Amino acid sequence: MLSFLTARQTGLDDPVRLRRAESTRRVLSLELNHDRDVERIHGNGVNCIDIEVIEGRYMLSGGSDGVIVIYDLENCSKKSHYTCKAVCTVGRSNCHVHKFSVETVQWYPYDTGIFVSSSFDKSMKVWDTETLKPADVFEFDGNVYCHHMSPIARKHNLIAVGTKDPKVQLCDLKSGSRIHILQGHRGEILSVQWSPRYEHILATASADGRVRMWDVRRAAGSLFTLDQYNGDKSKASSEAVNTAHNGRVNGLRFTDDGLYLLTTGTDDRMRLWNSATGHNTLVNYGKVVNESRKGVKFTVSRGCSPEFAFVPCGSSVTVYSLYTGKLVTTLRGHYNNVDCCEFHPDYQELYSGGKDCNILAWVPVLRQPDVEDEGKRGGDQAAVNPAFEDAWSSDED
Amino acid sequence: MDQEMRDKLSELVEELTTSGEPQLNQAKMKEVKKICKLSNDYIDHFYHLVMTQLNQDHAEVRFSAFQMAAELFSRSHHFRALLVTNLQEFLELTVETDVEQPLPPPKEVARKLKTQAIQTVQAWQTTYGEAYKKLALGYHFLKQVKKVDFQDVEARTLAERRRREEKQQRLERIYKGKLEKAKQEMEEMASEIEDSLTEMNNCMTLIMPDTFNFFSQELTAVSETSTEVSLQDTDVCDEQPCCSKDLNKEGGRMAGATKGDEEEEDSSAESDTEEGVDKDVFIRSSGLMSHTYRLDLKVSSDLNVKETEENEAVVNTMRDLHRLISSRYLPAIQSWIQVFTKVGVEEQLMRRATDLKKSLEMVLRKHDELHIDYKARQRRVLKAGEEDDDDFEEVPEKEGYEPHIPEHLRAEYGLDPISSPSTSVAELKPSKPVERPIAPPMPSTLGRLKSRRYEEELDPTCAAATLRILKEKVATATCTSVSGGSPEPATSCSSEQTEEKEKAPVVSFGLDLYYWGEEQPTAGKIIKNISQHQFWVPHEVEEEVENEELSAQMKSRYITFAGRFQPVEHKCKAPLPNGSLCERQDRVKCPFHGLIIPRDEIGRPVNPEDAARLEKEEYKRREEQPDWRDPELMREIEAATGEDLGSSKTYGKGKKAGKGKGKKRKHPNLTDLKQTANTSRSRLEKKVFNKSSMKRIAAVMNKMDTRKHEKFANQFNYALK
User: Fold this and answer.
1) Surface of A (343-382) touching B: CB under 8 A
2) Where is this region: Disordered (chain A) (predicted)?
3) Helices (H), chain A
4) Which among B286, B407, B457, B627 has the fewest CB atoms less than 10 Å away?
């Protein structure tokens, strides 16, 4: 650390380098922190969470009972212990609340005044954060599995919506209408994702095992389909041609730079693709247990030198090194299946929500002061909390 | 870390968890703690051991492991940290948080484990919840998601509670229905009951007056008799003691030997006379024996009401009412009260029911006190029966012969009274040629009757005449058919030979008897036709051939002598495995224990050579394995039933014991999970789903099935295939 600092001071290093090294270190030391709590509002499982990118202060969460909660993540109390308060809630008493499970929530990328939620009640609502009333409601024919707004788009205001219908819908926030349909999939659309690099590039994942890349300016068909065998037909059986996974593809995520695309499928595999060419990079992540029938909301770190992927896996969150596929660690804290996780890029914190109604904050452990020796540290810790003391009774001598 | 200590720790954990006891062995646990205290490495090891034991599919093992974990949890921070990081798994294994991973059997222990685990988690939460975040999370998870009510001692989950509530509601509904029914019934029956109560009371008051005086007298009498009353002699001056007593009294003063007689009657008087001498003068003058007398009046203490003609109607009503009350009203009220107490109704209803019951019971008691004599009524019933008999008399008299006449009607029919009906039947049977002395000595007073009967006999329409004819017939038949009957009746005419007659055996009639005492010239002779031709007959016509055999047959008689049956006196007496002796009474050989040999009272052979032979046989039998004890089959049966049939024993020389069964169970203290419950269902299953029977049934059904599809199944030559 000190060497990084001196190198930075003397100007030997790029400023990014120090930042990257430190954030990587912090990500590696993530753990369930005693000092950080998230208020328990949800009475049912938490399906999705989203952290806004403008301030990095507010977090949206959607529950499987239709409740949407906005949390304030910022600790202004200047104490180490902090419970993230719920700022406002779209509860069951709200007349506009989603009837069924909220599957996706997303902040409007440029303003926290708007957020969008989609639900199994076949609707997608655009909310006004101030009044907590829907500014617009899009109705669909089937359950809405996912939607996504482009985080960088300046020339369009499109929301891609994946429903039970194999056609991907494009809704325009400007006109408040469904303007476009992307045809090509043969199964329900479980995940959609805009590229963070090119505002017109969209990736969609479907239950038919295929992942298609689209340019929304060219509606005739998809750009290409990701093929797990990279076009090597001899390896693929006839029905597995041009498929990304052998099961349903239920998770999609671009890396922060948009160069790579990460997909998960119910064949318990995770694959990393070159998003420009559609090439399978053949990184082996091992078995990533995935039994979800819905979309899986996993996330990728931002600003670390080797990037990490955080994938919900059973009742734990597994952390993989993105480019090597190495399992870095497993974050165990939930008591039931984890449904979603979200990475906070500014503080390198991870928030995960699961079926046990909890939203857990995984916070980097602060670096211990180096000067103090081992023995004193132990004593210190015990002094901090008497519960950490050993309580051997004397008769065991 | 010391390898030795480590091994010891593993051993201790293994022993503690497989003990199968509800409480941990404190001494061993202390040792475990001592080892764990040494270093965190041991705690690590201990943690892994406990987790492996917790993963075992046996509730007892899990329970013990859980207890150990709880012990160490309160001791070591390191262990707490380890356990809390893996609290999910721990809860899954102990609190059953995962529905797909239920706790293993045995059930009671599993329930106990769950309850205790929940309580422990709560205790942990209160003490360590602040410090260990995951513990708090786990606690909240249990509380909020699994809806475990920590206040509930039984630690039931929400579903269980709901089920319980539903059951309660159902029961309540049923009770409510019952209550309504009982209420309605009571409404309907109350007036009825009250009516019958008043009726009963009225009946009693009606009966009472004529017995009331007696009743009051009796009461005073009872009070008198119950206490010993010393009477002044003036009170009883009218009593006259007999002179013998007087004598005795004087004698009693002289000699105490004679007192004995007196003491029986009057002991207190005796002592009195001896005490006061001056009083004796008075006694003597008055002629009394003593100043005190005990008067014993024997009056039957219970009231008796006899049924008479006057009170008959009343008593009858009372009787009916009594029956009605005891058989109908009382049980009904009883059931209402039961329902009321179960449901818990308003007091008024309950009181009414109990009042009704009380009054009914009182009436019954009163009725019992009356001791009404119902005998008269029973007699009346009999009388009615007699009246029925009278009805029968009106049936027109039957003419001619009547085989069986009841004894008491014989006089009417003009027949002799006979000793027993059986003889009369025998006598009247004409087919039986036994002649017996029928006429018993007739009393002289019946002489007139006899003459009248003679007259009757002349009348052919009377039964007596028929009987006479029959008698005559029989007599002539027995006298004439001497040769046709058995020897006994043949000789019956001559009374002198009765003694010989008795000795002579009774044999069946045969050819030899037919020709008895006659020389048969043709006996055994056969006319033999030489020519077999039908028409052509040779000149010398008949040739008689004497057949020895045939002639002998004419004269001889075969008598098979089977001997007499002699019951077997001895018993087999071979010792049985249950300690008793074989009770079989075979003549020569017992089917189970071979030749019957003399044995003593404990079943040992008396003769030494017998003993030696038996021993040899026994040895031989042991040596060779009986073929029905196929070891494979036995092992299968043992596996199915869980009983030891002894298949592991080696019988033959070359046979080896079964590999699985020979080994002793690893942890004998734990409850055996594989042991199937011995329920009626399992027993039936064993029978029904038996491999061989299943096979058999399948074969039969297959056969039937193929039959169905054959073309000519109904033709015998195809069907036979």
Assistant:
1) 355-358, 360
2) 371-397
3) 2-10, 15-28, 374-384
4) B627
